Amino acid sequence: MSDNKNFYITTPIYYVNDIPHIGHAYTTTACDAIARYKRMKGYDVHFLTGTDEHGQKIQVSAEAKGKTPQELVDEIHMNFKKLWQVLNISNDDFIRTTEERHIKKVQEIFSRLISQGDIYKGKYSGYYCVPDETYVPENAIIEHDGKKTCPDCGRELIIMEEESYFFKGSKYVPELIKFYEEHVKAVMPKIRYNEIMSFLKGGVKEQSVSRTSLKWGIPVPGDEKHVIYVWFDALINYISALDDKDFNKYWPCVRHMVGKDIIRFHCVTWPLMLLALGLPLPVEIIAHGWWTVDGEKMSKTRKNVVDPFKIVDEYGLHPFRYFLLREVPFGNDGDFSELALVNRINSDLANDLGNLLNRTLQMINNYRSGIVPGSSEISPLSELAPEILSRVDEAMNNYSYDEALKSIWEFISRANKFIDETLPWKLAKDETQQGKLDYVLLNLYEALRLSGLLIAPFMPDTSKRLYAQLGINSEPVKMLYENFSWGAGAGTRINKAEVLFPRIDVKAWHKAKAEVSPVARTSEFSSLRDNMKAGVSCKQAEANARVFPSQSTTAQPQPAPVNAEQVNEIGIEDFAKVEMRVAKIINVEEIPRSKKLYKLEVDLGYETRTVCSGIKAFFSPEELMNKRVILVTNLKPAKLCGIMSNGMILAASVKHDGVAETLTLLTPLDENIPLGSKVS
Ligand code: MSP
Question: In angstroms, what is the span from residue 149 Cα to ligand 1's centroid?
Answer without folding.
Answer: 21
